[in-house]
Fold this sequence. Notes:
Layout: E1 2-3, H1 9-12, H2 16-22, E2 27-36, E3 44-47, E4 52-53, E5 66-69, E6 72-75, H3 79-83, E7 86-91, E8 102-104, H4 119-126, E9 129-131, E10 138-142, E11 147-149, E12 158-166
Antiparallel strand pairs: 1-2, 2-12, 3-11, 4-6, 5-6, 7-10, 7-12, 8-9, 8-11
Amino acid sequence: MRLHGVTGLAELLVPDAFGRFVGSATRPVRAVLFDKSPAANWALGWHQDRTIAVKERVDVLGYGPWSIKAGMQHVEPPFAVIEHMVTIRVHLDAVPADNAPLLIAPGSHRLGKIAESALADVVERCGAAACLAEAGNVWLYATPIVHASAAAVAGGRRRVLQVDYSAETLPQGLDWLGI
């Protein structure tokens, strides 16, 4: 579930210590709540995040294709925008190996934009690591990292708040949707 317009959420997600770590101009630009349960359990194949949420469609050279996700306008920017982003995942529930942890290909964030047809080769070369977590743990990673998630095999719940951060200013009237 993509989150937007939640009163006080932006202030909660920008603690002073975080700003000192990633830069004072860095701000949350998108938040998604993942909620896997026995009733809603899915898998997501290996991919790189490639779209950003914006307030409205403004046709700018190098930005596209466009899509609507959860009623919000998204666009694929030049990959340099994604390369300068960081993502945090706040684990609201424990994520052991059988509860669909985030899988990453370590080091893949340094390889630039990877063609979908090359993802399997990248995972084979970089390997795969499961990001296990206890409730309350926070993972921070480079947004362009190649990642995936299996369906949970345990009957539990796995809720994760994922927040993307950027210090970039978008060009020519494009503006981050924000949270």
